[in-house]
Structure formats: C-alpha cells, structure tokens
Amino acid sequence: MSATVELMDYDEVLERFDPVLGLEVHVELNTHTKMFCGCPTGFGAEPNTQVCPVCLGLPGALPVVNEIAVASAIRIGLALNCEIATWCRFARKNYFYPDMPKNFQTSQYDEPIAFNGWLDVTLDDGEVVRVQIERAHMEEDTGKSLHVGGATGRIHGAEHSLLDYNRAGVPLIEIVTKTIEGTGARAPEVARAYVATLRDLLKALDVSDVRMDQGSLRCDANVSLMAKDATEFGTRTETKNVNSLRSVERAVRHEMTRQAAILVDGGSILQETRHFEEAGGTTRAGRRKETSEDYRYFPEPDLVPIAPTREWVEELRATLPEMPEQRRKRIQAEWSLTDLELRDLINAGAVDLIAATVDAGATPAEARSWWVSYLSQSANSRGVELADLPITPAQVAAVISLIADGSLTNKLAREVVDGVLAGEGEPDEVVEKRGLKVVSDDSALYAAVDEALASQPDVAEKIREGKVAAAGAIVGAVMKATKGQADAKRVRELILERCGA
Ligand SMILES: [Zn+2]
C-alpha cells in the first residue's frame, strides 16, 4: 500500500504546471447544545453520555433546528462578505458509515444559508490574495470511531472498533472556496494563510473554539495541477481533515510534487480522498471520490425551511465585531508601526498581548518593547509560545507603571518579571519579597556616594577638575554598593553635586 512515491522537484513542478486549489473548512460551532436536539456538546466527556433519541436516529425521533447555530451561520456568512439566503432548506446526504447512526447526514445541498463571498488573506510578505467563497452551509457532525488493537490506530489491522456518538449532531458550518488559481509557487502558503485568516475571523466572531488539535476546525485541501498549455482543470484529489496550519501547507506541497511526477510519467490522477501523514509530510490514498449524485440528496422532510428575515440578518450584522484585518490596520496606525514591524509582531504572536497590555495602562511603545525583547527571550529559553508564558498583560503593565513612577529601574523590573514568571505572585509581591525597590532616599544615596568618593580619591579629584566622564567609575561603585537598586541618573547627579562639577 505504501510503495515508494515518486515526487517531482518543486521548482520543476512550477515550470510545467499551475496549481489549482479548493479549500473546504469544517468548523464546529461552540453552541451549548447540538444542531437538532438539546444534548450538550462539551469536548472530552465519557463516550456516549451526550446522546438522545434524535442524535442517535432512533425511530420516531424528530429534529428541531438550533436557532443559535443558525444565527452563528449567518454571522459567519456576513463576516465572509456572503449573500444570506432568504429561504433555504436542509437536505439528507445518504451514505452508510458506522459513526453516523441515522444513515444520512443532515446537511445543506443546493440551498446553502450563505453564498458568494470573499476573504482577503495577507501572506507573510504583506501580499494580499482575495479568496472567493462559494458557500457556507450548515450541517451536523458525525460520531467518532476508535479502532482498537492495531498498531496504527486505523481500521486496517484493528481487532475491533468502538463508537462514541457524543459528537454526532454537533453543529458544523462547512465553508467552501471557489477554485483558487494563479498562486503559483505560493499555493501552499496561500492555503495555510487562508485557514489561519479564517481561524482568526471565527475566533473574533466567538462562534467556535477553532481548536485544530481538537478537531473543532478541520481543513480538506483539494489540489489539482493544470499543465501550462492546458485549457481545462486537471483531476483533483482531496486531502481530508488536515489538523494544523503547518500540515495544510505541507499537504498541498506534497500533492503538487506527487501529482506532477505521475502526470509527466504519462499517468493520470485518480479522483480520490487522501489522508495526510503527519510523520512524513505525505498523503496516502483513501477512498475513490464519490460524486454528489451518489449521495441521493433530497430535501429533509422533518425540518421546516429556514427563512431568515432581513431584519434579523441586519440585527446579526450589527453584532459583528471589528474584523481581525481591520483591527490590524487600526493598531498599525495607532502604534505607528511599519508593515515589517507589524508583521514581526503578528508572526511572534504578540499583537493581542501588546494590545491587552496597552488596555491595562501601558504605552504602546513600552508594551511592545517588553513583549518583543525580554519576554520573547524568556519564552524562547523556556521553549514556549509568548502567550503561554505565566505572566499576564495586566502584570506586565503593572511592572511598566512601577518603572514609570521611579520605583523600579529597568534592571530591577526584569528581576520582578522573572519573579512573576517563577510563580512568586503579583509584581508588588515580588518587589516586596525580593526587596527590589529603588533606593530613592537621597540621604541613603549621599552616604553611598560619599563612601565611594572617599575610597577612590584620585577619581574624585579628576571629577573636581572637571573631567565629569570619570564619574562613571563612582556611579558603578554606588550601584554595586546598593545592589543595583539606585537610580543611576540620580546617583550621577549627586556625585557631580558633591564634587562641585
Ligand atoms: Zn441528542
């Protein structure tokens, strides 16, 4: 099954072919109850404890549409610049799979709730690609199969399989792009950036947890190649359920190099689903792809059509938050950032942290400086993401305000931050426990200055003669004597005053 796969060099692929993409993203909504029944939707519960006759498809059970899920679908559609249907229906998509107890999935077919939209995607270097959205439709999730006894966790080689229907009936929105052409060498990057942008958008809308690692956001990547002189699209493959941003990029790239090698060898691409193999960054064949005719779609007779009034749609439009892209532009202007500086902050995952630190009272420049320098170094040395450091923006803002009012020097502030990161409490508590306050009492400083001058009379003499640069040595001695807790600028002033310079 896993015979060695020929791959073509990536640059050669691009000399001969143009890649064509189509991306389907499934997002699980964060409603408290399922799409057509009142069962809870929490992740990670004991298997088969969140089920009822409706989501188990028992005889006589009748579904009822979750209004909040419809509202979320419409908000997603509006955020993606889609038209919202004035009337649409659910449809039955018929097929057998053990994790789907009804033997059909309640979905939407030719009457999606939202259609004809677009999403602007900014690539790492700032280039913007507009991705056209075909549709966003409502459906329900399936249950989960667990294959036991095999080495791989797949059904192949397993001794038996277990089924958990907790996820069956959880509301899903499937967002489908139109074909994405003309991206050339950047196709894998565009695919990743699209999913990342969509994830940020859905997060801002607060309609989903968008956890790719937990499957609440999943991407199917359709990839085909078109020979340079061709006039029609090539046959596509669909790599299913890719569950990280990096994997989306790798899966697209792998499919391009795999398909190209087959095509130049005179072979043809099978229209099939494929599975992404995380370990090798490759894809393996799944099932031959069905066509929509195979599913015998028909309108769902147990559910009333959805006919959102224009008033309701406008009410929902008014609930849309500031979109991530607009927010970035506003922040760039407010923080006076160049494109490059903004991109660095985005790539470092620092924008939200800085914004929250500014909200807690810091200036943008100070907040940015702490997060991109000292805290980034701390995150690096711990091997964690910036956002996962055990310090909050409010705590960073508190440290910054202690510097501003003269209670801390920058050096002491770094020690306070270290203390917070080490779990020693709030900044105030760390200052107290570690005794880190700046010595601002001039009488204490005069004593230290006099002592330092007395111990280095030759230096003191030079300062008296007007060689003020020599004061540095005395400042150093005073800082040492006060264990770095004096304000160096004030110490220098006192030295010059004592020497009459
Ligand atoms: Zn149920």
Give the SSE layout:
Elements: H1 10-16, E1 17-28, H2 67-79, E2 83-84, E3 91-94, E4 104-107, E5 114-122, E6 128-140, E7 144-148, E8 160-164, E9 171-177, H3 187-205, E10 217-227, E11 237-242, H4 245-264, E12 272-277, E13 282-288, E14 298-299, H5 310-317, H6 324-334, H7 339-347, H8 351-359, H9 364-372, H10 374-382, H11 393-404, H12 410-421, H13 427-434, H14 442-455, H15 457-464, H16 471-481, H17 488-498
Parallel strand pairs: 11-12
Antiparallel strand pairs: 1-9, 1-10, 2-5, 3-4, 3-14, 5-6, 6-9, 7-8, 10-11, 12-13
Bound molecules: zinc ion.
Zinc ion (ZN) binds next to loops.
If you had to describe this structure to a student in words, what would you say it looks like?
The protein is an alpha+beta fold and 501 residues long. The protein folds into 3 domains: 10-311, no CATH class; 322-434, no CATH class; 442-498, Arc Repressor Mutant, subunit A, CATH 1.10.10. The protein has helices at residues 10-16, 67-79, 187-205, 245-264, 310-317, 324-334, 339-347, 351-359, 364-372, 374-382, 393-404, 410-421, 427-434, 442-455, 457-464, 471-481, 488-498; strands at 17-28, 83-84, 91-94, 104-107, 114-122, 128-140, 144-148, 160-164, 171-177, 217-227, 237-242, 272-277, 282-288, 298-299. It has a 9-stranded mixed sheet with strand order 2-5-6-9-1-10-11-12-13. A 3-stranded antiparallel sheet has the order 4-3-14, with no helix packed on it. A hairpin with a 5-residue loop joins strand 5 (114-122) and strand 6 (128-140). Helix 3 (187-205) runs antiparallel to helix 4. The longest helix has 20 residues, at 245-264. The protein binds zinc ion. Zinc ion binds at residues 34, 37, 39, 51-52, 54-55, 169.
